[in-house]
Structure formats: C-alpha cells, structure tokens
C-alpha cells in the first residue's frame, strides 16, 4: 500500500474533521491515512463482496474522473461487473424505468448496427442514429447488460460521485466507497480510507475488491 501511495491524503486545509479517526499523522502539510484502518475496512469490504458474489449478486462500480476511468473499466470487465466511468446521469438508479428505456434503445441500435440495418437507412437518418448510438455507448456502455438495480455499488471517489452515492442511499443499496481525507466516512456502508487521486492507489484497492468478487463467483458456480 505504501508503494501505491494509498496513505497520502489531501492538504491539511482540505479535510473533513470526521476523518480524524482515519488519519495517523501530518507530513509537509498533507494528512497521512492510517493504513491499519485501510486494511481493516478493505478486509470488511472483501468479506461482504465474497459473500454477495457467492450468492450470485450483481455489482456496479462507479468512477468517472479521468484518473479512475480506465481502472474502473478494467476492474469491472475482469470481474464481470457493471460500471459507469464517463458521466453519472442523474436518476440513473432512482429513475430506473427511464434508464431501462434508454438501455432498450441502446440494445436495439447496437443490433441494427451489427445487422447492417443502419446502412440501409437514408444517410441523414443513419448519421443521426449513429451519433445517438455513440452517446449511449459513452454513458451506458458499462451497464448495457444490466437488467435490474445492482445489489452492491462500489464508488471510487465520494466527492466526485456524490449524486450516485445519494441515489444508493435513497434506494437502500449497500455501498463500498473509497474515501480520501476530505470525505465523510459516515455516508457509505463501508468506507475504505485511501488516496482516491493516485492511479496506483485506485488500481490496488479495486484489484483487491474484484479479485474477491471473482473468487466469490467461483464459489457460486461450484455450489449452485
């Protein structure tokens, strides 16, 4: 964790006092996260994920800032999870019927493209539908196979994904959240104190979580 910079927090002026129990020191104007607490809550998160995966539950991983986007997509694909890594569309979960309608439209357009249906349309209509398909791919590509609300949501940056977190809280969907020293540790069901700005830190935490999901899924396959 030290090599990945998981322990580096924000500057001491940019912090949430509720994070005090998760901070071990100050160094050169920066808060240092207590890695013992990180390991403890990461272990709790892994226990929850293994149990859920072994029961066939569905997961959604959310992380839309540039530093997290690629890691989120890779981790989600590795563990066959749904993901959002470009932009969280308000109401994506709380207004699920609308999201479902968009997903049906997205799947229909993908089918039309694969079967060559779009190429048989007038050029203007085809261009319009291809632009629509491109937008849907950008925002919904990671959840294109999602047919219902997820059972657990993993959030990479609490501040960046606050809308997604609030939607989960409203719906009672359990959340696991990476929290830096400027976050509120009381919002998520399990908060993992960690550097949410360093790619290596994000990748390390996500990898631990998705490996656990994969192990849980293997258990589910072996013991249906």
Automatic annotation (TrEMBL):
Listed name of the protein: Small ribosomal subunit protein uS2c
Major location category of this protein: plastid
Source species taxonomy: Eukaryota, Viridiplantae, Streptophyta, Embryophyta, Tracheophyta
Location within or outside the cell: Plastid
Gene Ontology biological process: translation
PROSITE patterns membership: RIBOSOMAL_S2_2
CDD domains: RPS2
Alphabetized InterPro entries for the sequence: Ribosomal_uS2, Ribosomal_uS2_bac/mit/plastid, Ribosomal_uS2_CS, Ribosomal_uS2_flav_dom_sf
GO cellular component terms attached to this protein's record: mitochondrial small ribosomal subunit; plastid
PANTHER family to which the protein is assigned, alphabetical: 30S RIBOSOMAL PROTEIN S2 PROKARYOTIC AND ORGANELLAR, SMALL RIBOSOMAL SUBUNIT PROTEIN US2M
MF (Gene Ontology): structural constituent of ribosome
Keyword line: Plastid, Ribonucleoprotein, Ribosomal protein
Organism name: Hibiscus trionum
């Amino acid at each position: 964790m030290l090599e990945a910079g998981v322990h580096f927090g924000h500057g001491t002026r940019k912090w949430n006092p509720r994070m005090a129990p998760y901070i071990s020191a100050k160094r050169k104007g920066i808060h240092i996260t207590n890695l013992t607490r990180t390991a403890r809550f990461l272990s709790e998160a892994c226990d929850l994920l293994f149990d859920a995966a072994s029961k066939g539950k569905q997961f959604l991983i959310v992380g839309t800032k540039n530093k997290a986007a690629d890691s989120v997509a890779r981790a989600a694909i590795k563990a066959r999870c749904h993901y959002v890594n470009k932009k969280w569309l308000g109401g994506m979960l709380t207004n699920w019927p609308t999201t479902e309608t968009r997903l049906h439209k997205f799947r229909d357009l993908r089918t039309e493209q694969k079967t060559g249906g779009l190429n048989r349309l007038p050029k203007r209509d085809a261009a319009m539908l291809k632009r629509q398909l491109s937008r849907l791919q950008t925002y919904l590509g990671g959840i294109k196979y999602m047919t219902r609300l997820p059972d657990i949501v993993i959030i990479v940056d609490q501040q960046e994904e606050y809308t997604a977190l609030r939607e989960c809280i409203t719906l009672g969907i359990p959340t696991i959240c990476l929290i830096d020293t400027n976050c509120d540790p009381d919002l998520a069901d399990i908060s993992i104190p960690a550097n949410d700005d360093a790619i290596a830190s994000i990748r390390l935490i996500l990898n631990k979580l998705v490996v656990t999901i994969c192990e849980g899924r293997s258990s589910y396959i072996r013991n249906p």
